[in-house]
Write a structure and sequence with these properties.
The structure holds two protein chains of two kinds. By secondary structure, chain A is of the alpha/beta class. Among the domains of chain A are: about 45-300, NagB/RpiA/CoA transferase-like (Rossmann fold), CATH 3.40.50.10420; about 400-470, no CATH class. Chain A has helices spanning about 10-15, 20-40, 45-60, 65-75, 90-100, 115-120, 120-125, 135-145, 160-170, 185-200, 225-230, 250-265, 320, 325-330, 340-350, 355, 370-375, 380-395, 400-410, 415-430, 445-450, 460-470, and strands spanning about 80-85, 105-110, 130-135, 205, 210, 215-220, 235-240, 245, 270-275, 290-295, 440, 455. In chain A, the strands form three sheets. In chain A, strands 1-10-7-4-2-3 form a six-stranded parallel β-sheet, with helices on both faces. A four-stranded mixed β-sheet of chain A has the order 8-5-6-9, with helices on both faces. In chain A, β5 (about 210) and β6 form a beta hairpin. Chain B has two domains: about 1-35, no CATH class; about 40-225, 3-Layer(aba) Sandwich (Rossmann fold), CATH 3.40.50.10420. Helices cover about 30% and strands about 25% of the residues of chain B. Chain B has seven helices and 14 strands. In chain B, strands 1-14-7-4-2-3 form a six-stranded parallel β-sheet, with helices on both faces. Chain B is elongated and about 70 Å long. The relative contact order of chain B is 0.17. The chains are: A alpha/beta, B alpha/beta. At the A-B interface, α2, α3, α4, β1 and α8 of A face α1, α2, α7, β11 and β12 of B.
């Protein structure tokens, strides 16, 4: 997928002015966060589970080579194959080669962020294989030719009227006069349209929430059941997974599963948690004849051992998106690549480079909500700060921004001068603004005063008051 | 693709500033995989007596829109299913998984219930399956594939009816794993079934304006017939 992250500011401005998007985002602002808080409150062991989950992933990452080789051995022992892929192009070619060998015409897909990252749909379509997204949200954005706006609710930026219109434009063989007023009708229509696609597909592609070294299994977590139909009915099941998904044992996966659904949708457990190990066995009544795991690196191995290693603990629950004031205002597409929100602001520059990721590490107020709700305790604000520093070092921010920061740094390094200027500035502004009590415009601060007034300072600076009050405290 | 495999492993080791794991460290990882030690298990179900686990399971399953009918003995199951289908005006036509436990039920006592044994088709409105275990912690059913358990029977029919015995109840997922390991270990090795399904309520989606709708692609209804076979008491 081509990144438009450099245009983040323009994208965000556009999103703020999009009435449909703004109406749709209202649903997200309350739903996810409340349901998560409720689910967490039901589990007294929450904090302890988080600690253990972090320890599991740290161990997995510290011994990643070992666990991946152990995983591969088990997959092979169970009759499956692991395809190690350095980058998106290699992963795409691998999937296409399997499809071609099987003479596949259509491929059903469960939701996969790795699929988005490598752009598998475009690659298959360009080579004569039709990909069919089956997760309802993914299906909606596929027929609208849009990228996802959320990592677990890809169509969260749309209102139902937009979806109904897309259904009418796409499902042309259905009665044009049929009612499509509510989510029930649209859900039923998608079910009816996609059922024959499930049955006809030659290959099924899913993502993976976990790979299990102990057993050579992949695990997916879904609510719709689309992932299960996708991987059960066709001739082959292809799993798209990045290498940091591996955990040592079923018990380890289980511990993190207790955090995943609660953090994501606020459910105690998702409707379907499915563990897949190899192709169908000789006596099995059904199941895919082939099982392939496409194991993608795409820059992740380079993050190990460095300041962004913690990001590899991410389990893609989207809690950081759901609690981020910036994400909640503008939605996910403004971020311009696959992963939006705070986790995207850290991961995107890690995977495609800070030059291409543009302003993303700045798309944060550093309120810290993301880190506090992250089940894997990933220090997202700290890592965004690391990216800001790198961005500055590489002279990427615009000159005015750099000049402003340099001026601030000049004073910040000279506390006495800083205090003097702040004190004088506050007094002067206080005198000038005495009448109105606020400023409509200030020189050099138009960006700030364009949308709000600056209150006039009411006297002295914090530091001078602090010094005065400290000296007034009674000595012991 | 061997080149990519080596490159990936080398890249991981370069970042971790080491070569392949030292023998002692590798042995520790081997042990970790072989012993699959349990992590923290929430007290919620673990501390309950068997009867309490059954009650918790029913409560949790109903919270996520599953329905539960309780019968005294296995022989009552066909009647319970027939009653359920007729109450909801659903077709009295079902496909049942080729499972010996289901074969043993007295289906012929309900002649109006049309039953077929085998793998589900798209046209089957109702699927009846057995299950491997049930997890009290979250009202979750545990099923697996095999000769007796076609996976598609859990997903294709509009209505999924699961026959569960109270004695199959476990407190936590970890108990389910151990039960599975015990059932499928031969010559010291664990032969994991191709598919293990943890099912918690019927299929659902909230992808349109965050509104929850049941029956996205999988079953619209999940009905559990619970046989109180006393062993859990």
């Amino acid at each position: 997928m081509k990144a438009t992250s450099r245009a983040f500011k323009a994208n965000a401005r556009h999103a703020l002015g999009d009435p449909n998007l703004q109406r749709a985002m209202v649903n997200l602002r309350t739903g996810f966060a409340e349901r998560r808080a409720h689910a967490v409150a039901q589990l007294p062991e929450w904090e302890e589970l988080r600690e253990q989950a972090v320890a599991i992933k740290k161990d997995a990452l510290a011994h990643l080579d070992f666990y991946l080789e152990a995983f591969e051995q088990k997959v092979i022992a169970n009759g499956g194959q692991v395809h190690w892929c350095r980058d998106a192009a290699e992963a795409n070619e691998t999937v296409l080669a399997i499809c071609r060998r099987l003479g596949a015409k259509t491929v059903t897909k469960g939701k996969s962020m790795i699929g988005e990252e490598i752009g598998i749909n475009d690659h298959l379509a360009a080579n004569g294989v039709t990909p069919v997204e089956t997760d309802l949200g993914e299906y909606i954005i596929q027929i609208r030719h849009e990228p996802p706006s959320h990592i677990i609710a890809p169509a969260v930026h749309l209102v139902k009227e937009q979806i109904a219109q897309s259904f009418r434009e796409t499902h042309r063989d259905l009665d044009p006069a049929r009612p499509l007023m509510d989510s029930r009708q649209m859900c039923d229509e998608a079910r009816a349209v996609l059922r024959p696609r499930f049955l006809a597909a030659d290959v099924g592609i899913t993502g993976a929430n976990f790979l299990v070294a102990e057993t050579g299994s992949s695990i997916i977590v879904t609510n719709e059941g689309n992932g299960d139909l996708t991987q059960t009915l066709p001739k082959a099941h292809i799993v798209l997974a990045s290498l940091e998904k591996v955990v040592p044992t079923l018990e380890d996966a289980t511990t993190i599963l207790r955090l995943l659904a609660r953090s994501a949708t606020g459910q105690e457990f998702s409707s379907y948690t499915t563990v897949s190990t190899g192709p169908r066995r000789r006596d099995d009544a059904d199941g895919p004849g082939e099982y392939h795991v496409v194991l993608l690196d795409n820059g992740r191995s380079a993050l190990l051992g460095g300041e962004f290693e913690d990001m590899l603990r991410c389990i893609r629950c989207a809690a950081c998106l759901n609690h981020c004031p910036v994400y909640r205002a503008i939605g996910g597409q403004s971020y311009g690549w696959v992963y939006p929100g705070p986790m995207g602001s850290v991961l995107t520059p890690s995977l495609i480079g800070i030059e291409a990721a543009g302003n993303l590490p700045n798309a944060s107020t550093f309120c810290g909500q993301c880190e506090s709700v992250c089940p894997m305790k990933i220090p997202l604000p700290k890592m965004m700060r690391h990216w800001r520093e790198r961005e500055f070092q590489r002279h990427l921010p615009p000159p005015a921004y750099r000049l402003g920061l340099a001026a601030w740094a000049f004073f910040a390094r000279r506390p006495a001068l800083y205090r003097l200027v702040a004190d004088v500035g506050a007094r002067v502004l206080g005198v000038i603004g005495r009448g109105r009590g606020r400023f409509r415009a200030l020189p050099l601060a138009a960006g700030w005063t364009q949308t709000r007034d600056m209150p006039a300072p009411e006297g002295r600076s914090f530091m001078s008051l602090w010094v005065e009050r400290q000296s007034q405290r009674k000595p012991r | 693709m061997n080149g990519s495999r080596d490159q990936t492993l080398n890249s991981i080791r370069r970042s971790l500033k080491r070569g392949p794991l030292a023998p002692e460290a590798a042995a520790a990882c081997e042990t970790r995989l072989a012993t699959h030690r349990r992590n923290l298990i929430p007290a919620r179900a673990r501390t309950l007596p068997p009867r309490g686990q059954v009650e918790l399971f029913v409560k949790m399953a109903e919270t996520v829109n599953a329905t539960v009918a309780r019968v005294k003995q296995a022989a009552d199951v066909p009647a319970a299913i027939a009653d359920y289908l007729s109450q909801l005006n659903l077709p009295a036509r079902l496909v049942r998984a080729p499972d010996p436990a289901l074969d043993a039920l007295p289906w012929s006592e309900r002649p109006l219930l049309e039953t077929r044994r085998g793998v589900a088709e798209d046209s089957d409105p109702v699927g009846v399956t057995a299950c491997f275990a049930a997890v009290a912690e979250t009202g979750t059913l545990m099923l697996h594939s095999g000769a007796a358990g076609p996976t598609r029977n859990n997903f294709l029919p509009d209505t999924h009816v699961v026959v569960l015995r109270a004695s199959q109840m476990v407190a936590a997922y970890e108990d389910g794993w151990d039960k599975l390991r015990a059932a499928y270990s031969r010559d010291g090795g664990f032969a994991m079934p191709r598919t293990v399904n943890f099912i918690t309520g019927p299929s659902r989606t909230a992808d349109i304006e965050q509104k929850i709708e049941l029956g996205a692609h999988g079953p619209r209804r999940l009905h559990i017939v619970l046989i109180d076979d006393g062993e859990a008491a």
